[in-house]
Amino acid sequence: MIKVMYGKKGSGKTKFLVDSANDLSRDSAGLVVFLDDSDDLIRKLHYRIRFINVAEYAVKTTDAFFGFISGVVSVNYDLQHVFVDGLTYITNDQMTNMESFFASLEELSEKYHIDFTISANGDENAIPEFLTKYI
Q: Does this model's pTM top 0.90?
């Protein structure tokens, strides 16, 4: 399952992700991972959540980010949920260019039974059509 929180900056997407991740980590037997492009949230997340600052790695495109996520999946057999805060910041791309990324992510999600919750900035009145099924 993929769920996308899409809206303007300051609309509460990050707070929702942090609260959801913390709630899930307390009740989950599996691993919860939180991906972000800075260390700002590390102290707001429950200690059981595996926090990764993607900016510390050579991830600057959508394809590189999908490869990064695939690597995280490959080394964590008990991975249950991945939270991504600020997808467009991490990938340096616009949501309108990410249809193939989401198709690949959906395949990964189904194959390994991993849920993804993603926040992305954008105008909620102009949501790309491919994205509507994830919102």
A: yes
